[in-house]
Amino acid sequence: MRVRSVAIRDFRALRAADLAVDGNAMLIGESGAGCSTLMLAVDRVLGAAPRDGLVEIAEQDFHCGRSGARARALSIDLALERTPGVGWPSALAGVVDADESALHVRVRGELGAGGARAEALLVRGGREEALGEAALGALRRSAPSFFLDPESFRAALREPGAAPGPAPADDAASRLVSEVRRIAALGSAASASDVAGALGALRAFVVDWAERASPGETAPTGEALGARVGPIPMPALETIDLVRDPEDPRAAALLMAIGVLCEVARSRPSEPDASPILLLDNIGAGLHPRWLAALAAIVGGLPGQRIVHSHSAELISWVGLETLRRVETVGGVATVRSVNVGSLSGAQSRRIAHHIRRTRAGALLSRCWLLVEGESEAWLLPEFAHLLGVDLRVEGVQCVEFAQAGLDAMVRLADMLGIGWVLLVDGDEAGASYAGVAESMLGRRPADAHIVRLPARDIERCLYGWGFARVYEKAAGRGASARLRRAGDPQGVIRAAIKAKSKPDMAIAVLEEAHRRGPDATPPEVRRVIEIAVAKARGRGGPWSVGDGGGARGARGRSRK
């Protein structure tokens, strides 16, 4: 059983939000977008409570608007579905019929003079009926949710006043928690044999958990367990050599992640055929990329449904495009966007997966993409923006090269995720073709707010004509540049300069000269594309201009004509 959708009204940070998922999901959004609130809503229905059959609602759970007034009512609607190929858990026989495809639960809260109160309801065919304590308890034992954030991880590893010691031998979870705490207490004094003992407890726990996730099957070992766990097969544990590499992040991450999960899970009663729902909120915050990679691989191998929220490009790069849910919130109302992978060809999906998900995953967190043809533009535009007093990273603008993945796929992806975009193309035939592709995808949107064409065949020729000729002539060599100038061949000068240096080196030379000259060194078309991108990122209706006071200090200045 797994979550299919959650809809909330006036719960915590959000006035309204509707989230639909198909299996696992990765929630991305800026701070305050409401990702954590969506996960907390799921946990409020399915998570642990002082009384298993009751929903706990407090005054702070009711949305508070800008006026400071709290809503007087809230609701959480949760739809659950059967795991594909598996029937409903046996404990829910009296709650849901065997032939029903979904189970709809509604939590309604009211805030009155006497405080907050809540009730749980079962929704069938638009009609509501009370969901009793026994039924809600059975639901929570059948689909227990575990909400974990950075503080949960730290708290689970702390046990004030308790000395680490052996746990009951027949309790795999308790033994693992005890071993994790023992290693944490030893710190750098932990030996390879100490950690090996903890890994043994981990193996026992994973076998036990895998058996619980697939009741009725023989507990898997070796290759069979590796096939089930996926990204972290059991043979991989044998390759962790703590003697040669005591800082191998996989060992520590395995112990930390699964040890903490079972510390939380072991306190929750569950049915033999339960399907756990893991709600992981920014758990990789502050971790080194090596640890993040290890943690991502481990989380990806855990059984049950996983709904993860992260600001980490490293974690995002590990998930498929179909799992992404981008959350944007304005005035307390959240909009959730996802990728319709069916609208992309197989080749497009593969190229995007490599180019964006694997090498530019941070772009998925941006507000606006500045789509460029090649590496020169990607080097130059952020630095020209600095000349204008703008930090593109702070504004949420990222330069993204589109040639590898294809312009149509990149524009389609940006539109599906609600990411603004503006295209800078060369003035040659290829640039005209790219502009035509982009125009065909605009619909009713204005072309001049999305497409900027350079007046020259490429960015280098544009810079050459905008006062940077001497930079290229110097790089090409005095003799070659003089001969090519006499022949009226500036493009030859540019080619000679790039051959003598390289495109990145020439970009650096141009930028050094530009910083010497100041904001006026920015070509008009480059200035315009930056203005459009910043305006989109800031959510303005029209292009922002460095001359209207919108830029940072020192950004004023008139472009040369």
Protein architecture, described:
The chain has 20 helices and 16 strands. By secondary structure, the chain is α/β, with parallel strands linked by helices. It has three domains: 155 residues, Rossmann fold; 118 residues, no CATH class; 190 residues, no CATH class. The strands form three sheets. It has a six-stranded antiparallel sheet, with helices on one face. The longest helix has 22 residues. The C terminus is likely disordered.
Describe the structure concisely for a colleague.
The protein has 20 helices and 16 strands.
Which keywords apply here?
single chain; about 550 residues; alpha/beta; Rossmann fold; six-stranded antiparallel beta sheet
Provide mean pLDDT, rounded: 79
Please give the alpha-carbon distance between the first and last residues. Answer: 65 Å
Q: Helical element count?
A: 20
Radius of gyration: 28 Å
The total strand number stands at: 16
Shape: elongated
The helix/strand class is alpha/beta
Portion of residues in helices?
40-55%
Unreliable sequence segments:
159-170, 213-246, 541-561
Major beta sheet, specifics? 6 strands, antiparallel
Instruction: Name the beta content range.
Output: 15-25%
What oligomeric state do these chains adopt? single chain
Number of domains: 3
| Spatial strand sequence of the major β-sheet | 2-1-4-5-6-7
Present the secondary structure layout:
Layout: E1 2-11, E2 14-20, E3 25-28, H1 35-46, E4 73-81, E5 102-112, E6 115-124, E7 127-130, H2 133-142, E8 145-148, H3 150-156, H4 172-186, H5 192-213, H6 222-229, H7 234-238, H8 249-265, E9 277-281, H9 289-300, E10 305-309, H10 313-316, E11 324-330, E12 333-338, H11 346-358, E13 368-372, H12 375-387, H13 392-395, E14 397-401, H14 407-417, E15 420-425, H15 429-440, E16 451-453, H16 459-476, H17 478-486, H18 490-500, H19 503-517, H20 524-538
Parallel strand pairs: 3-10, 3-11, 8-9, 9-10, 13-14, 13-15, 15-16
Antiparallel strand pairs: 1-2, 1-4, 4-5, 5-6, 6-7, 11-12
Helix pairs in contact: 4-5, 4-8, 5-8, 8-9, 12-19, 16-17, 16-18, 16-19, 17-18
